[in-house]
Amino acid sequence: MKFKSIAALAGFAAVSCSLAVSAAEITGAGATFPFPIYARWAETYNKETQNRLNYQSIGSSGGIRQIRAKTVDFGATDAPLKGEELQKDGLVQFPVVMGGVVPVYNIQGVATGQLKLTGEVLADIFNGRITKWNDAKIAGANPGVKLTDATITPVYRSDGSGTTSVFTTYLSQVSESWKSGPGAGASVQWPIGQGGKGNEGVAALVQQVPNSIGYVEYAYAKQNNIPVSQLQNKAGKFVSPEAKTFQAAAAGADWKSAPGYGISLTNQTGDEAWPITAPTFILVYKNSDKPEQVTEALKFFDWAFNKGDQAALDLDYVPLPAQVKTMVRSTWQNELKDKAGQPLLKNPS
Amino acid sequence: MVAVSQQQLVMSMDTSIRRAPKSSSDTLFRLASFGSALLVLIVLAGIIGSMIWGGLPAFREFGLGFITSSVWDVQRDQYGAWVAIVGTLTTAFIALLIGVPISLGIAIFLTQLCPPWLKRPVATTIELLAAVPSIIYGMWGLFVFAPLFAKFVQIPVSQIVEGLPIFGTILYARVPSGVGILTAGIILAIMIIPFIASVARDILDQVPPILRESAYGIGCTTWEVVRHVLLPQAGVSIIGAIMLGLGRALGETMAVTFVVGNANRLSASFFDPGSTIASRIANEFNEAIGLQLNALMALGCILFLVTFLVLVLARLLIARVKVN
Question: Are B188 and B236 in contact (CB under 8 A)?
Answer without folding.
Answer: no
